[in-house]
Amino acid sequence: xxxxxxxxxxxxxxxxxxxxxxxxxxxxxxxxxxxxxxxxxxxxxxxxxxxxxxxxxxxxxxxxxxxxxxxxxxxxxxxxxxxxxxxxxxxxxxxxxxxxxxxxxxxxxxxxxxxxxxxxxxxxxxxxxxxxxxxxxxxxxxxxxxxxxxxxxxxxxxxxxxxxxxxxxxxxxxxxxxxxxxxxxxxxxxxxxxxxxxxxxxxxxxxxxxxxxxxxxxxxxxxxxxxxxxxxxxxxxxxxxxxxxxxxxxxxxxxxxxxxxxxxxxxxxx
Length: 270
Prior knowledge:
This protein has helices at residues 8-33, 37-57, 61-82, 87-108, 116-121, 129-148, 150-158, 160-165, 170-187, 189-211, 215-240, 244-269. It is mainly alpha-helical. The radius of gyration is 19 Å and the shape is globular.
């Protein structure tokens, strides 16, 4: 693998993997702490509609997917806060409609876009310098926002009713959390794709949740774990010529199973 570092696409892939791991660690922690995995999954799949719009009108993929993902996040935030019992139906609708729009617009687009599969299942080795710029900006936006409002996110994550009594605008910060989740999804498109992004957001965070004693620790541990999984998946996919996003998720899944097995054996030993 070290000899491959002479190639720019390998360097881009490593940088992209680290950036996505940071985003996944921070936002994944908020998603898991707030039990929003299903919502994040809906946002991820609905973003495919934005990819279709971008391909059809010749717009940047990140722009189209980002706009669609943020609109979906706003819809889900509104429904969750107003009619929580309807959230499953709304997520399913947004999910399916977004995918349908994307598929139809891709069908209507002239020619066949050979890059399309990389947005569904990821292609970290295809990350360009322009992609890195977008991913870097997204990562900075997420980190600054979470750092500025960390206490607010912390309070609504564990006791939203008490936070509201303390004067925290729960509606605003819950919506902001979903918007950041949408940005995280779009950031991870090139690495693991829209289909697998939810696993990257949740698996490392689940492991981190079991060993962390605070939300901040959870974010740090999750980032480190996600980075290890991503880089190991990148190495394996490069050596065996496999789809990078799928390998990264399989590495994460195997690690999770080993972690659960260890926890189970350790618990019995006690």
